[in-house]
Amino acid sequence: MDGYKFRFASQAGSDYTINLRPTTGWSGQYKSRAMGASPVLRRERNGAILGSSLTLHLECLEDGEYAVLYTSSPYEWLAELYLNGNVLVWRGYVSPELYSAPDMAPPYDVEIIATDGLGELKRASYAQDGPMTLHDILKALLNTAQQDDLPIMWRLDYTSDGCNGSNYLTAVSLDLTSQSGRSCYDVLSDLLASMHAMIMYDG
User: Fold this and answer.
1) Distance (Å, rounded) from C-alpha 17 to C-alpha 82?
2) Which residues make Cβ contacts (< 8 Å) with residue 52, sequence separation at least 6?
3) Element spanning 34, H or E
């Protein structure tokens, strides 16, 4: 299956590329298509979690051309935003519940929204058996958001018992076995709040 490639230039003169491709069965090829309006990258805060989304308005020249993006899974289509062709600015997944197309003959614009996956943690249940380091707990939680291959960058504004920003995640262990069965989103939110920390997708 082919993916889709969209290009646009900002008023500041920067060139952006957006790639949409299936996570399985991708042919390695992209179809170049036009955008009906400039994309919008948003970040919204919900407690300790700063989620982000990318809203796209795609120009549809054939009826139902982008219907393939309406799927049953939130992880079937990957969205990537690049600056100047090779700098990855943002990555997320097309949300099937946030696809809309007008009931009219083409051409028309289709609106889709891709999210960073953090909101999808509400659908998954957390499981832990015994102590784990903070790093392993965060990786296990973020694995549910399909962003587990991304590095966790930790900014620490205080030090304690010789821990600093580079080793804090691996030096501290917690036993969250009692949290098993709760949503990954709630576990992550409470864990971050207990550390007075926040999490967000960046770069």
Assistant:
1) 5
2) 41, 42, 43, 44, 90, 92, 115, 116, 200, 201
3) none
**Residue 169 one-letter amino acid:** L
Does the predicted TM-score (pTM) go above 0.90? Answer: no
Q: Distance (Å, rounded) from C-alpha 23 to C-alpha 126? A: 24
Omega before residue 22 within 30° of 0, cis? no
Count of other CB atoms within 10 angstroms of residue 181: 9
Those residues with Cβ within 8 angstroms of residue 68's Cβ, 6 or more apart along the chain or in another chain? 1
User: b/e map of 91-116 (b: 16 or more CB within 10 Å)?
Assistant: bbbbbbeebebeeeeeeebbbbbbbb
Confidence class for position 54, pLDDT limits 50, 70, 90:
very high
